[in-house]
Amino acid sequence: MRVSNRLALFNIVATLAYLGLAILGGGGFSAFFSHPPLVFLTIVFLIMSGVGLFSRGNLSSVEREDRGNRWVLPVFALIGVLSAWLPAYADRIGILTFGGDTMRWLGVILFVIGGVLRLWPVFILGLRFSGLVVIQPGHSLVTGGMYGVIRHPSYLGMMINAVGWALAFRSGVGVMLAVLLLVPLIARIRAEEALLHSQFGAEYDAYCARTARLIPGLY
Length: 219
Known about the structure:
The chain is mostly helical. The chain has a single domain, classed as Four Helix Bundle (Hemerythrin (Met), subunit A), CATH 1.20.120. Helices cover 66% and strands 2% of the residues. It has helices at residues 2-25, 29-32, 36-52, 72-93, 101-125, 153-168, 172-180, 182-200, 202-209; strands spanning 64-65, 134-135. A two-stranded antiparallel ribbon has the order 1-2. Helix 4 (72-93) packs antiparallel against helix 7 (172-180) and helix 8 packs across helix 9 (202-209). The radius of gyration is 18 Å and the shape is globular.
């Protein structure tokens, strides 16, 4: 429970900091919330963050961990800070922006889709969902449902979520940051798959042979 409480506190602080940076970049509360799509984006963001508090995801390293992959965590954090502030700032001053409110609403829709796809696997995996690349006691493969089609649905959700956030601000800079997210994300995927292969061997190889990493037919 102590770990869960710390994780919940971190979630709350990170959520408020992320929104705070966006509002700051957007020119303050009045300017930011003068756009109805951004009002809705904020509401959805807060709801999803609240829902995430009820998941059983964790940061425990438990039985075995690929510690060499921890470098992606500060990279994710840095890209996250830039993504929070820079798209809103670029939107406010009109640098590399495109489209109008239709583009903003498209971004909000993608943000919702990505958020659901990001959170759903966390609840499916429960305690097996870790912020670290780990093998836990009694670890077993989940190969049904969405995991029967793609192996990393939560990461696909993260990408869709990031693109949606960028488009909500009509931000070309935000889209570039979302693309940059692929670098640590692919490194994370490869580390996870190597660790799972070392644990489950032929069973995991057979699973990989019938599924895609992120997008069926592409990757």
